[in-house]
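SEQUENCE-TO-STRUCTURE ENTRY
===========================

Backbone structure tokens: a row of integers, each naming the local backbone shape at its residue.

Task: work out the structure tokens from the sequence, keeping to the layout shown below.
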Amino acid sequence: MRAGDWRATLAPELGGSVLSLDWRGQPVFRPTPDGASDILETACFPLVPYPNRIADGRFVFEGSSVHLPVLDRFAPHALHGEGWRRSWTVERQSAETVVMTLDWGGDPDGWPWPWFARQSVSLSSEGLQIGLSVTNTGEDTMPAGLGLHPYFHRCPDSRLTLPAEAVWMTDARQIPERLAQAAEVVDWSNGVDLADAPFVDHAYAGWSGKAFLNGGGRCVTLTADAAARWSQVYMPVEADFCCVEPVTHRPDAHNAPPGEDHGLIGLEPGRTLSLTIMIGAVSSS
């Protein structure tokens, strides 16, 4: 795909993923290695029908107990839904837009509710836009959430700004246990040099829907619509990437206590949940 100063490559057959995103010949997303077959080596992929972890792959929804299969590498928790581990079908494509779909029929030994997802990836002179949606195609209300998992290219002088009100502190099993001031992990609101940042893998709540990654003579911008009130920040120390993941609910929202504003919704039959993000860039030199 190409438009203006932007170039991107996609792999619908590999979890509906983006393999690369470049601006003016320089990587915005971490490039996928040639020949890679592991979705976790790609540049961005969709999270549907839920993002992040579900503790022990178990939860109860409207009186029904659900036990999800768990991948060995992420045991004992279920992670990121089903869409990232399936081949997507190209519905429509051009030099600037690719629309792909995934039809999940339900699995009695896994996610039991049927759903239909659509992902539209488009380039313009302004940057990359990704729209992701999930529609409940079954006869019962299902729990639903969405997210996108971009791996941003990290420069030696990269600085992240991400305004958010709070952060979910996690237990030893990486499951949220309490909401705290952002500074208990890292407060990105006024910008933090990534070279000085500790390891982070936390969900930020009350997110403004905007993030800015300055470095390498440019400012990369991420804008998410109002559906993404949480952002999962994954920041390995000394890695060549950082992740800012717009999501519609916090991790393990399926097991949240009653009354909590966790973001997980009950999606009624025939209804659709949508999420849209935009990636842009401007020169800062």
The mean pLDDT is 96. The domain at 2-283 is CATH 2.70.98.10 (Beta-galactosidase; Chain A, domain 5). Residues 51 and 134 are 13 Å apart (CA to CA).
